[in-house]
Amino acid sequence: MNAVDGSDHYSKTSDEPPPSLLTIILDTNPNAWALLSPTLPLSAAIANLLVFINAHLAFNNANKVAIIASHTQRAEFLYPLPAHEISPHINGSNTHNGDVEMADGDEPTVAEETSTDDANHYRPFRQIQSTLLTSLSTLLKTTSPTSLTPTTSIAGALTLALTYINRCTLNASTTSPNPTTTTPSDNALNPDTAPPPLHPRILILSVSGDLAHQYIPIMNTIFACQRLSIPIDIAKISGDTVFLQQASDATHGTYIKLEHPRGLLQYLMMGFLPDQSCRGFLVAPTAVGVDFRAACFCHRRVVDVGFVCSICLSIFCSPPEGAICLTCGTHLQLGEYGEKPAVVAKKKKKKRDMVDGKAKEATVRSRPG
Amino acid sequence: MSASSLRSFEYLEGLPGTTFNRLYKQPSTALAIFRRMLPHLAKSFVMALLYISRPMPVTDLEAWVRPDGRRERDNAFNLLERLHILASAANPGKPRAYNLTNPFAASLRLALTGGGGHNSFGVPTNVAEDDVITIPELDEFARKQWEGVLGYMVGSSTGVDLSNSGVELSPGVQHLLRGGGLVDIRGRRVEITQDGFAFLLQEVNAQVWTMLVLYLQAAEKLSMDECEVLSFLFTLGSLELGVPYSKTNLTATQCQMIHDLSDFGIVHEATPEASHFYPTRLATTLTSDAGGLRSTSLASSSDANRGFIVIETNYRIYAYTSSNLQIAILQLFTRLITRYPNMVAGKITRESIRRAISMGITSDQIISYLTTHAHPQMAKKQPVLPATVVDQIRLWQLEGDRMKATPGFLFKEFNTQADYEAT
Prior knowledge:
The structure holds two protein chains of two kinds. By secondary structure, chain A is an alpha/beta fold.
């Protein structure tokens, strides 16, 4: 009879892991890819990425994927596309609540052509492939040489990714008929009561370095991810940035710097494919040391040692002008910065003490005798 | 691993290695088995090994898994070997190494990248405008056919009139149900068996798989090639809902299958002579996981049927349904008191549960049925069902299990006392 007692059988544990949403941020900075082209041209990288996406979708029927291009000056969705880009003539019906409808895999996003290739390709895979390729080529066509900068707008892409994840999480919690009652922050606050309906994660394929000028927005998105427990994985193909290492470290993601960019696919398959429920069993291939340096708020320089405002914790590479914090405006007192510390000469221990100590020891030893 | 896949899975494991080799030649089969049959960790292993040309030493794979995940790792390896996906490579002099077996790896790679000439994901056709069947129509067809099958099984024993469902079961289906031991035909009366009850209380997806395994076993007797049948089933799972597919490139066996499966509502063909067919939701969710099913399965496709049972701590049960089939199933283990146009109310009593248990239904089946069909308002709570009710149902079952028989031996007629002591 004891078998019926005990309350563990109330909690219905689902042995199937929840579906995962993979948001890929692809750094499409043309400069960096041009530099990379001898080892890993963009086309090869995209082909590898597509196989990886298909593998992700093959894991589970309900797995989802979103791809965001972080271009030189803006960030754009490559898949799924905002609905008005596909069908501009029915735009009016979509904007009634200020939401942008995202065409998902359920609706045919691209013009359906019945070619002989169809029968040899699993349909969801083919849809993503064609959408991704067309949107990427339009993105590259609309890039003018004048807009080229050596950096990329990772922060914007991360923000887009977070908004999309938020939306999908809301949609996924279908058990409540009224989705407004549960916000994702509720889920994040009490994860024990309800199992997460969706495991989101972000993967950044980064090729360009130097993100120092976006330090603040990037750190903000990182903290948002940390709070929502969304891991950020980084595949560093080339270049080097400090902050992405911190991103993966703070959110328990994976950071891999690709030694051989040619083997991108194997890195992706082995390091980045397992989702959260799998990673519990696997040894994470992560970076050895994390660079925790920050960028100063005044010149966006990466600093080893800096000055921190005692009120708002802003970081400066040198004392700001007039000792007024640039962020919060507090008048700071620098104290006696730059002065040499007054060194007080060490007092020498008196010899007499030493002699006394020895003498005491001697007496202690001699006592038993 | 959900219960639904278990049966198909056990069946698959029993197949000889050569059948696997032939099965894995189809990319759709490789993809479906990968997606449906493997536990999560095993999928990671397969993907990690997929694009490595050399066999991977066991030590490397073991180093990849954390020490506390050893049990899961061994499970995964075990299963992969049983399904002939993973094989230890023969390289003498070196430590044991694993690689993926060839037809499987090649097919999975093909499935991921596309290409080849296998046509295993179905050939869509274009159909004239007025012949196009919409998705709601397909759902309705599938629901009608499937409920017809279930109604045939339930109808006889509960006395609820199900004849208005208007589905005439084909002799083939009736034969299959009897062959699988789900119903027993005595004279002209159809009587449901214990297995039949267990079948009724399963999820739709599990029911479909059970039925398909029965079909597979029957197919062997009809001298249909089981390999062909299986691979076509997996192909069906990868088709898209609402798209017509051509029959021209199918073999005779597969055309026969389409005809048989349309009796269950798994596929839809306008006429046996038509050149195309539509997969219904029953087919396209064949290879989905349980997680994806809850939102897409047949039961929830029409809003009326999506979770309709409210159960209170005082054992009263309210079911918002007007489907005769659902009422008949409920009646198996509840005492229904009142019936309203869109709702029935009843009570779970000791007698009703005992009656169900005497028919061979277990308490776990009842509980899982109630859980899967719980009203959305109830499903929000954790635990879904009131704890008192769950406990009481189990207790009512245990009442009957007070004595347990264990096999024993009786030795008698010993010749001498010494013999007796020696044994």
